[in-house]
Amino acid sequence: MIELSAGKANTKYKIYISKTALTKKVLNQNIDKDKKILIITDSGIPKKYIKELKKQLINKSVYVHSIDSGEKSKSFRTYQQIINKLIDLEFSRSDLIIAFGGGVVGDISGFCASSFLRGIDYIQIPTTLLAQVDSSVGGKTAINVPQGKNLVGAFYNPRVVLISTVYLKTLSEREYKSGLGEVVKYSLIGNKRLKKLLEENAEKVINRDDKILIKIIEESIKTKSKIVTKDEKESGIRAILNFGHTFGHAIEAFNKYKNLSHGAAITLGMIIASKISYYEGHIKNHQLDNIINMIDSLNLDTDYSKYNYSDLIKYVKSDKKISKGKLNLVLINKQLKAFKTAKFDKKNVMRVFS
Ligand SMILES: NC(=O)c1ccc[n+]([C@@H]2O[C@H](COP(=O)([O-])OP(=O)(O)OC[C@H]3O[C@@H](n4cnc5c(N)ncnc54)[C@H](O)[C@@H]3O)[C@@H](O)[C@H]2O)c1
Question: Which positions bind Zn(2+) (predicted)?
Fold first, then answer.
């Protein structure tokens, strides 16, 4: 069992990573037995996991609320349904929500926890690779509104994050690769050890080998928690976590959030950002080749040739990364450290698509 931590002062929390299923011991060490618990999960998560989890909890009152799987559930409607459930079950401020699922479940459960009775405890048990390496750590919670994704939410840290690689075995190839895209991101924004692990173990990563999964999850979280702990409210350094996201989000929006997963779009965005870094003189040619080869060796798609500059730039311009009218890009340098900059030559961005 690996133990990490994130957050500051009284909102500091532990993150446990194990390759076995969550045991009674681990769960009950982290959950007060007198609390009422609402497990929030979704319709796509195998029922056997929910049964197992319920069996391991010794609390007297454990309820399950399942939402439809998919992004559309991160809505006011689902939020209202969960709040109604908490009220019907007479949850008090000392009770607990368990977010048991991917990023959708984590985000909406966290937002319910942050706002119900002005805040009750929640714990994250993430079941997708993306949620394990990204959304369950950092305390960002949200729902979507018709005007855009994640426009309503709060920064609200969980009490604990319990990760088991057991859950990753049933994840679809698409969802697994989506999470892998985020893992690659951490390896390119400063985690050299993770990069080496990915380069030397591509085959094992593709085959979801538990030992290697544990290591890449640990390294990914170390990078994320270091950054989010320094910058809890996203005012500075946290921006480097958006490496690949400027064009990645534009690719997602261009595809109307269909066809390709978030991670697949971000992977293409990282290739674009790496190429801009090269044309801007921040990295060398062999470094760019090395990045593309590594991504390729993990069986992730690197071909963005069907997108052109004019298709994507309008979405880039409407994205949140424009500050005071200036477009900010997250690029990387020769030391493979990411940095945010508004200083770049537009011609070098266009060149990436020529
Ligand atoms: N809060 C943050 O910091 C943060 C960061 C990144 C992404 N996000 C959010 O995360 C969401 C995406 O999360 P996601 O990629 O985990 O997608 P998701 O939550 O939609 O899950 C993907 C699919 O996998 C299924 N699934 C989950 N666990 C499974 C398992 N163990 N076995 C089989 N199927 C399983 C789900 O039912 C769902 O159909 C987005 O809404 C995004 O905005 C939040």
Answer: 182, 245, 262
Catalytic residue among 238, 275, 282, 321: 238
**Residues within the annotated binding site for Zn(2+)?**
182, 245, 262
Choose one of 22, 45, 156, 234 to mutate for the ligand 1 pocket test, by most ligand atoms within 8 angstroms of C-beta.
45
Residue whose entry in the numeric block shows the structure tokens 């939402």: 67
Residue after which a domain boundary falls, among 170, 195, 221 = 170
**Whether pLDDT at 137 is above 90:** yes
Whether pLDDT at 198 is above 60: yes
Q: What range does the domain containing 58 cover?
A: 2-170
Using CA atoms, how far apart are residues 278 and 284, in angstroms rounded to an integer?
A: 6
Q: In the structure, what pLDDT confidence band is assigned to residue 280 with cuts at 50, 70 and 90?
A: very high
Show which of 150, 170, 190 is a domain's final residue: 170
